[in-house]
Specification:
Elements (H helix, E strand, L loop, with lengths): L6 H6 L2 H17 L3 H16 L14 H16 L2 H18 L2 H17 L3 H18 L5 H14 L3 H18 L5 H14 L3 H17 L6 H14 L3 H18 L2 H17 L3 H14 L7 H12 L9
Helix pairs in contact: 2-3, 2-4, 3-4, 4-5, 5-6, 6-7, 7-8, 8-9, 8-10, 9-10, 10-11, 10-12, 11-12, 12-13, 12-14, 13-14, 14-15, 14-16, 15-16
């Protein structure tokens, strides 16, 4: 319906209405896996908002519109591998929230901070910020998504080595999410949990999350984390000893990520595929796949995903007998 609003109609809207229109359309594009278009729309929303006089600005869902637009733009940036831009937007959102001193907006900014800490591999800081956000939300009585709060804390705990407690929080949080009845974002949260558990060597626990994400892909048009779920199913196949299915799945994940312009997801799929090819005495092929994915990363080569890929590329040629 919103896509039917033409350029002439948009020109007649008030600036804040144009901001809202761009954010909603950008969010739709994000969940459809159309990251480039989402990024364009969110950038447009921020640019339009900058021209709105302060006295005419309105919150969106009780949150500062500038922070909302940046948060959704960060989502697109991370998938696209624009990790430095994501960090810069996070810092801008922090400054907006601090300058305004608006508690509901501060809770959103704490979410962005904990995500940035996680991206950089700082699990202790991600856990600290998760707990700080939870405490602030409880004081405000404003936590509308308690399931996601539990899952984001659980993910960081698993990453820090507190696997049992982190796994419990992931499972509890996902159950709360399901009770809430929200389908939007289910591929993201299912893939997020599965990724943490696979990295921790818990494939049996990861399986239920991958299956939930796959079920969502079969029933709703969301394709936000489709490439990641395909990759994770391939890793489960590899763990089960089916190297052929694993290779096919990783190539499918890589192709999906390439179609979406999801450079970070493509790098992850290429990293896992290169490791699999190396273990099949096809290290030269694996090097070519991984090098291409690294060269396509626009930013963030000093961040964990790229550093892991670089380390693997350097060591290719030596079979890896450890589980994926």
């Amino acid at each position: 319906m919103m896509a039917q609003i033409g350029a002439d109609d948009l020109a007649r809207l008030r600036p804040m209405s144009r901001v809202f229109h761009a954010i909603v359309r950008g969010l739709i594009k994000l969940y459809l896996g159309e990251f480039d278009e989402s990024h364009v729309l969110m950038t447009e929303a921020m640019r339009t908002l900058a021209l709105v006089p302060p006295q005419e600005r309105l919150d969106i869902g009780g949150i500062d519109a500038g922070v909302v637009a940046r948060m959704q733009c960060i989502n697109a940036c991370v998938c696209m591998g624009r990790l430095e831009q994501a960090d810069a937007l996070t810092l801008e959102a922090i400054e907006i929230a601090r300058r305004r001193n608006h508690p509901p907006t501060l809770t959103w900014v704490l979410s962005l901070q904990r995500w940035m800490a996680f991206r950089h591999g700082d699990m202790a800081e991600s856990m600290r910020l998760s707990r700080e956000r939870q405490a602030l939300s409880e004081r405000l009585g404003s936590d509308s998504q308690p399931g996601s709060a539990l899952m984001l804390l659980g993910r960081a705990m698993v990453g820090s080595g507190q696997v049992e407690e982190g796994t419990r929080l992931l499972q509890e949080g996902f159950a709360v999410w399901a009770v809430d009845g929200s389908q939007t974002g289910i591929t993201e949260f299912a893939a997020m949990a599965a990724d943490a558990l696979l990295a921790a060597g818990r494939p049996a626990d990861a399986e239920s999350f991958v299956a939930a994400g796959e079920q969502a892909l079969g029933h709703i048009p969301e394709r936000f984390f489709a490439a990641e779920l395909i990759r994770q199913r391939a890793l489960l196949s590899r763990h089960a000893g089916d190297a052929a299915a694993a290779e096919a799945g990783l190539r499918e994940a890589l192709a999906m990520a390439d179609r979406q312009g999801a450079r970070l997801f493509a790098l992850r799929a290429a990293t896992d595929l290169a490791r699999l090819l190396n273990d099949s005495a096809r290290s030269v092929e694996g090097q070519a796949v991984l090098r291409a994915a690294l060269e396509a990363m626009p930013e963030g080569l000093d961040q964990p995903d790229a550093l892991r890929a670089e380390a693997l590329l350097t060591g290719l040629g030596t079979p890896d007998t450890a589980p994926p």
